[in-house]
């Protein structure tokens, strides 16, 4: 059964917090409307000032955590940790709120209101207004870790942080610069993005407040210098293409003993082979053959840890009739032989 978080009110409430920025930093978390969000299993304040709150998104078969920091009035920094296929909320929210998303681990997909879909890989950055995306996010690898910086454009423009105030940068112009005509800006992984975000994933608690303020301002200064025209954009995919490829993915992982060719899948699902290959890689981050090889081996690794089946039986279950080829593939992916892996990971 596919895992999905229904965060509903949580997403809208985070936007509401941004829209009531004048009181955010001083409002006790007990007064925050997000504590009553129906889609949340827990809201855990980490201080008495409303500076940091952890929101737990729970369901019968998974978990998500959003750790929200009110860095400045009108600016939130949010750590996102999901082990799920996706999440969704009730409705679109304010177009005056800009989201800057960085993918650290896994992959994250968004569907624009135009019907096109785009995906972030590890190290990528996206910028969009919160009203331009459908009320859902998908995590094709069922794992996602990343950071969101959310800005109330009007408020931050009128009350910019100290360093930005000295530069004269017009934050409200970011919407037109990065999201003109309802678009979403994607910046592929590069050293400058890695420099800004990498350190945010390992900040000691005692340094968080000043460090977050510095890094948020560094990010906004960096974005003010970006030439949008020079950035090669990631490919967009249509919703029908994405849905077909997700069906193909489901077909591929449902029976690992089967090995349909790309041509077979193309005919069965009535999709052009080139479109199938490019869309699959766009969603899942790897060509079909590479993805399925790693998927088979990781399923085999789980069976080695959790069952007493022989290596030959496990090889057959994940689609390898030849045990020697299975052992070679296993070493390619996990850098260890199957027997040695079982010895290292056997349960007591």
Explained architecture:
The protein has 348 residues and is of the alpha+beta class. The chain folds into two domains: 5-230, Jelly Rolls, CATH 2.60.120.10; 239-345, Homeodomain-like (Arc Repressor Mutant, subunit A), CATH 1.10.10. Helices cover 39% and strands 24% of the residues. The chain has helices spanning 9-19, 153-158, 162-167, 174-179, 191-198, 208-225, 239-254, 262-269, 273-284, 288-306, 311-317, 323-334, 338-345; strands spanning 5-6, 42-45, 52-59, 62-72, 75-83, 86-88, 97-106, 108-112, 116-120, 125-129, 133-138, 144-152, 185-187, 237-238. The longest helix is centred in the last third of the chain and has 19 residues, at 288-306.
Reconstruct the topology from this structure.
Layout: E1 5-6, H1 9-19, E2 42-45, E3 52-59, E4 62-72, E5 75-83, E6 86-88, E7 97-106, E8 108-112, E9 116-120, E10 125-129, E11 133-138, E12 144-152, H2 153-158, H3 162-167, H4 174-179, E13 185-187, H5 191-198, H6 208-225, E14 237-238, H7 239-254, H8 262-269, H9 273-284, H10 288-306, H11 311-317, H12 323-334, H13 338-345
Parallel strand pairs: 1-6
Antiparallel strand pairs: 2-3, 3-4, 4-5, 5-12, 6-11, 7-10, 7-12, 8-9, 8-11, 9-14, 10-13
């Amino acid at each position: 059964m596919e895992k999905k978080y229904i965060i509903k009110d949580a997403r809208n409430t985070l936007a509401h917090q941004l829209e009531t920025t004048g009181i955010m930093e001083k409002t006790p978390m007990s007064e925050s409307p997000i504590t009553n969000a129906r889609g949340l299993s827990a809201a855990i304040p980490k201080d008495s000032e409303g500076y940091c709150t952890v929101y737990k998104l729970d369901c019968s078969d998974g978990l998500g955590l959003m750790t929200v920091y009110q860095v400045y009035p009108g600016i939130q920094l949010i750590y996102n940790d999901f082990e799920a296929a996706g999440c969704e909320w009730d409705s679109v929210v304010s177009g005056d709120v800009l989201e800057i998303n960085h993918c650290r681990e896994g992959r994250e997909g968004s569907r624009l209101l135009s019907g096109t879909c785009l995906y972030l890989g590890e190290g990528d950055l996206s910028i969009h207004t919160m009203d331009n995306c459908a009320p859902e996010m998908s995590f094709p690898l069922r794992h996602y870790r990343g950071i969101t910086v959310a800005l109330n454009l009007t408020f931050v423009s009128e009350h910019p942080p100290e360093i930005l105030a000295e530069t004269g940068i017009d934050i409200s112009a970011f919407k037109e610069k990065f999201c003109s005509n309802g678009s979403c800006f994607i910046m592929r992984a590069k050293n400058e993005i890695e420099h800004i975000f990498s350190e945010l994933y390992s900040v000691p608690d005692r340094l968080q407040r000043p460090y977050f303020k510095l890094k948020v301002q560094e990010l906004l200064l960096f974005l003010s210098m970006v030439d949008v025209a020079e950035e090669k954009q990631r490919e967009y995919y249509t919703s029908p293409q994405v849905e077909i490829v997700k069906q193909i993915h489901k077909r591929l992982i449902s029976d690992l003993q089967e090995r349909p060719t790309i041509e077979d899948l193309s005919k069965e699902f009535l999709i052009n082979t080139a479109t199938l290959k490019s869309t699959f890689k766009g969603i899942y981050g790897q060509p079909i053959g590479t993805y399925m090889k790693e998927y088979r081996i990781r399923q085999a690794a789980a069976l080695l840890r959790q069952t007493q089946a022989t290596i030959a039986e496990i090889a057959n279950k994940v689609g390898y009739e030849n045990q020697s080829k299975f052992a070679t593939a296993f070493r390619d992916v996990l850098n260890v032989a199957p027997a040695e892996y079982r010895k290292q990971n056997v349960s007591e």
